[in-house]
Amino acid sequence: MPTILIVDDDPHQQLLFGEELKDAGYDVLVAGSGQQAIEIIGRTPPDLVVLDIAMPGMDGIETLGRLLSKNNQLPVILHTAYATYKDNFMTWSADAYVVKSSDLTELKREIDRVLAKHSEGKK
Question: What is the mean pLDDT of the segment spanning 67-82?
C-alpha cells in the first residue's frame, strides 16, 4: 500500500484529504509545514507527496525545491487553491499540479497516474 505525505497548513484540509486517501487504500502521513515535511521525509520516505503552496514560513515552492534536492526521484503533486502558480517555472519540477476542490476525484486520479508512472520508471 503506497504511502502519501500530505503537506498542508490547514487542519481541516489535512483531515479531509487524509480520510479520502485512506478510504482510497493509501497509508497517509501528514505535515503542517514545509519544515515538518522535510523532517518526516528524512525519517519515513513516502511514495508520493501532495504539497500545498500557500503556507506560512516556508511556502510550497521552497519546500518543493528542498525536497527534490534531497531526492529528485520523489513524486510531488502540487495541490493549491491558486491556479496562477501554474505559470511559475519553479512549479514545473512537480509531477502534477491540481487546483483544490471539494471534489477530490482529480487529485486521486493524478495520484494514481503519478504513482503508476514512477513505478514503471523503477522497472
Answer: 88
Total domains, the chain:
1
User: Is residue 20 one of the residues assigned to a domain?
Assistant: yes
Give the end-to-end CA distance of the chain in Å, rounded to a whole number.
18
Output the CA–CA distances (angstroms, integers) from residue 79 to 43, 99, 101, 111, in the order listed: 23, 6, 9, 11
Instruction: Note the helical H segments in 24-87.
Output: 34-43, 60-70
Residue 16 C-alpha cell reads as 479531509
Determine the structural domain holding residue 102 and report its residue range. Answer: 3-62+83-122
73 in a structural domain: no
Cα(81)–Cα(1) distance, rounded to whole angstroms? Answer: 28
Q: From residue 25, give the alpha-carbon distance in Å to each of 6, 45, 53.
A: 15, 18, 25
pLDDT tens digits along 77-104: 998 886 665 566 566 678 888 988 888 9
pLDDT tens digits along 21-68: 999 999 999 999 999 999 999 999 999 999 999 898 999 889 999 998
